[in-house]
Amino acid sequence: MTPTTASTTASAADAAATGADRAAAPALLIRGGRPYGEDVADVLVEDGTISAVGPDLSAPEGAEIVDAEGCIVLPGLVDLHTHLREPGGEEAETVETGTRAAARGGFTAVHAMANTTPVADTAGVVEQVLQRGEDAAWCAVHPIGAVTVGLGGERLAELDAMAGSRARVRVFSDDGKCVSDPVLMRRALEYVKTFDGVIAQHAQDPRLTEGAQMHEGRVSAEIGLTGWPSVAEESIIARDVLLAEHVGSRLHVCHLSTAGSVEIVRWAKQRGVDVTAEVTPHHLLLTDEEARGYDAVYKVNPPLRTRADVEAVREGLADGTIDIVATDHAPHPADAKDREWDTAAFGMTGLETALGIVQQTMVDTGTLTWRDVARVLSETPARIARDLDQGRPLAAGEVAHVLVWDPRPAAEVDPEEHASRGRNSPVAGRTLPGRNRLTLLAGRPTVRDSRLAEH
Amino acid sequence: MKHLTGIGDLDRASAIELLDTSTRMVATQERQMRKLPTLVGTTVVNLFMEDSTRTRISFEAAAKRLSADVINFSAKGSSISKGESLKDTALTLRAMGADAVVVRAPASGAAHKLAHSGWIDVPIVNAGDGTHQHPTQALLDSFTLRRHLGGEQRDGERAGSVDGQGLDGLHVVIVGDIMHSRVARSNVQLMTLLGARVTLVAPPSLVPVGADVWPCDVLYDLDEAIALAPDAVMMLRVQRERMLGGGYFPSAAEYTRRLQLTQERADRLPAHAIVMHPGPMNRGFEIAGGVADGPRSVIVEQVAAGVSVRMAVLFHLLASNAREES
Ligand SMILES: [Zn+2]
Fold this sequence. Notes:
By secondary structure, chain A is α/β, with parallel strands linked by helices. Chain A has 12 helices and 20 strands.
């Protein structure tokens, strides 16, 4: 990471923004938990900052003591791929409800995708989203800027203006649409080098996916839904890693979903291409078999793939080919899902179930350690986005964005209990492990025992 | 059987039972008083969100011959074409007191959604959903096959009673646009369920990726399939838009050269083999006019069988359910 002048200045702005909260927060001692799932150590938080980490810390007078025996202590989670829907999609979600959902999921920062109405393609819109996030104060909200004007895929948006705005945008994406024009993609990759930005590509060849409804394979052939071939994703990723190599830029691959995509990213990393990749919780868990009942809650972009793909993305996440887990939280009003598959909306909620799915699919299976979870759900997403105070170590002197996660209880997922406006959870009715014991945003509790702590 | 949304709702025994009932329905249609009182007082709604006069009329005739009241609810000029959802339509039909809904829709899964989403709780009959299923078409095709080729003899003569029989030992070739065909999907499932061997013939660009696990063979060459001496050949309608917009094949000439059932090809079939088409036909494209009208053709008979088979389906869904309730 090479901080530029611009990001250093913005760092000061960030600190100023959370400073007020920090001063107001009372001292808090997290006692008996296991940071990163390793040795037991207490974590003392004072004035919004971690002041000490170690065994048997004594609580200062008046400090609240949180019993974290048996719990895992992690840096607050960071989501690089969230649809907060505001402005324009308030029926589905608002910054307020989306960040409440994020807090319940253990997140202390989300990156809000640009496909709003109006599109987040100007400094004005990204600053508005930033402001809404600050007002809601459930987690940090980092707006993602559109790559092209209106997500139209024709000309670059004013990337530098968004980067230089108070929102300090570093991640740019036309998510939901692919920057399919190779020349435009090349220019975007080059241009963001000015401010150490990254292009987060939604890899989907538009011609190969016209009318596509679900993964193209045995299930689509049988149930008669238009197929979405793996190659539509893989061909764009292959092109993009070569472009990134050619121009020496940073590329981030959104929600990679196929075994072939994992292979291509693995190959690119071996060549030294500066590429990072994400996988969603739902692609770690679910397959195209879910489409058989035509329940559109399982309709998502990219589509649920096969069991072999699920195995491949888990393996890719385990060996570091895939850098992070990001939710692609995509809430929709009930009407957009309770209808024929063809006309239903793409997308699933994810913020409030992400860590449970990661625990179930990766930790409980012995594939990832909790140290790895901190890496893929906090440290690396923050690093990719150049967030300065998120994804930091649990160490004295760091801003206290902390999650205390109890991995022991298991509960059935009931979307009616979710803080998100979206009820379109693909894991409704499934049992997931873990509970959000406590989430701290700059030392202030946002969640206690999976309930929002009003402020 | 609560609904008929696809062949997956049937097992071999219930499929044969439907075919046997269809045979009995044919007998009633040969009487002078064709109308049966079975479904007096029941209302069958034909919900057609896609144009298909042939199928709608067939279902309407079937329901009326069982003395049901029929309401035709078609997409043209209705609220559905103005953006009302299938769900809203279902709620409307429920309020209207429909006892069964026959649904034709452009969306794959529409019938399944009606049957299983809790919007309406009456038997649902799938009259064709997108590129998924068209179970009554498959039933009438199997009915026609059994009638002609079942029993001991295979000389095209009726071979006495075929009740209780499947299609064991028969070999059927289905030719055309497999990818977009709900008829092909339903027929592969039903014919193999009934013991027949099925061979599909299509250009590779019209075979869906993932069809490799279907219980049938896939060939790209019609002549190769005819050389296997099948008992029946079914030609599927090929929509010209597939050629122009989709680029699935280069030209009509190239398609017909490789895949049209010409007189010359029909002449190479075994003497007893029959020619089928679910209609509507593109004469001179997938099938030569002379073959469609020729002695092997059972195409008109398929249409007649359609009414009897749909009577049997409505009978099983409505009359049998009513018996269970009382
Ligand atoms: Zn996307």
